[in-house]
Amino acid sequence: MRVSYNKLWKLLIDKGMKKMDLLEAIEMSPNTLAKLGRNEDVSMDVLKRICAHMQCDVGDIMEMIPDDEES
Question: In angstroms, rounded to a whole number, what is the distance separating the alpha carbons of residues 6 and 52?
Fold first, then answer.
């Protein structure tokens, strides 16, 4: 399975935030932001901090996509 953070990017747009705003708000490294942009795995700690800041659930910022499903 692979992960997609498209929901996170849509949520940022809805809240009028930029990626750099999120990076600064949760004290995330630029490398972690790059991983999110490439839909790579990040630590659960980062996901928890994003959810706490955005006041949402992990399912609101990411989704798991089966490898055999095309997107």
Answer: 18
pLDDT tens-digit readout, 24-62 = 999 999 999 999 999 999 999 999 999 999 999 999 999
Quote the pTM value. 0.87
**Which residues share a beta bridge with 3?**
64
Query: In 10 A of CB 54, how many CB atoms?
Result: 19
The whole-angstrom separation of Cα 71 and Cα 57 is 23
User: Rounded to an integer, what distance in angstroms lies between the CA atom of residue 64 and that of residue 58?
Assistant: 11
CB atoms within 10 A of CB 29: 10
